[in-house]
Design brief:
The protein is of the alpha+beta class and about 150 residues long. About 30% of the residues lie in helices and about 40% in strands. Strands 1-7-6-5-4-3-2 form a 7-stranded antiparallel beta sheet. A hairpin with a 2-residue loop joins β3 (about 50-55) and β4. The radius of gyration is 15 Å and the shape is globular.
Length: about 150
């Protein structure tokens, strides 16, 4: 299910196109060594529903993100919960990656939900999260996929 940003302004929705096939994009989203290169270091990650795992920033084991795989369809979709328990006000988000073949490449849609934009602080976090995905994380993902 692809959310319409007009219907859900609280969602972060970003689409990207990569000239590589869907299996190359899937590998970048699911292979721990590749994940660490563009996102964070995963511990215990397997692209299988029900798998609980953690993301940590390199060298910062006290600052981790607790996750659970909610959906995993190889080459099509990966969805996991995302909870940062050390945050001042922990929030539980859902991060969804939808992969679609498009021409000779792949269309990737990132959707992150769980923001309460009625709360001013949450709205600011939502906007900062969108900027971070757009300016930092997705370009790094693209570089990993291209290699």
């Amino acid at each position: 299910m692809i959310a319409d940003p007009q219907l859900n302004p609280a969602a972060v929705e970003l689409g990207s196109f990569f000239p590589q096939p869907p299996d190359a994009v899937w590998r970048a989203l699911t292979e721990p060594d590749l994940l660490e290169r563009w996102l964070l270091r995963p511990t215990g990650f397997v692209a299988s529903v029900g798998t609980r795992f953690r993301f940590t920033a390199s060298g910062a084991s006290n600052d981790e993100i607790v996750c659970e795989v909610l959906a995993a369809q190889p080459g099509e979709q990966l969805t996991y919960s995302w909870l940062h328990p050390q945050a001042e006000e922990p929030a539980r988000w859902i991060v969804d990656w939808t992969i679609r073949a498009q021409g000779r490449g792949t269309r990737l849609l990132l959707t992150q939900t769980g923001f309460d934009i009625e709360d001013r602080r949450q709205k600011m976090i939502r906007n900062a999260t969108e900027r971070s995905w757009k300016r930092l994380v997705l370009p790094r993902l693209g570089a990993v996929i291209h290699h």
